[in-house]
Amino acid sequence: MENLKIASVQFENRSGDKSYNLDLIKKLTAEAAEQGADVVAFHECSITGYTFARNLSREDMLELAELIPDGPSVNALTAIAKKYKMTILAGLFEKDIAGNLFKAYICVDETGLIAKHRKLHPFINPHLSPGTAYTVFEIKGWKCGVLICYDNNIIENVRATTLLGAQVIFMPHVTMCTPSTRPGAGFVDAKLWENKEENATLLREEFDGLKGRSWLMKWLPARAYDNAIYAVFSNPIGMDDDQLKNGCAMIIDPYGDIMAECRSLDNEICVAELTADKLVKAGGYRYIKARKPALYRDILGKEHVSEQKVVWLDK
Question: Which of 64, 193, 256, 315 has the fewest CB atoms lying closer than 10 Å?
Answer without folding.
Answer: 315
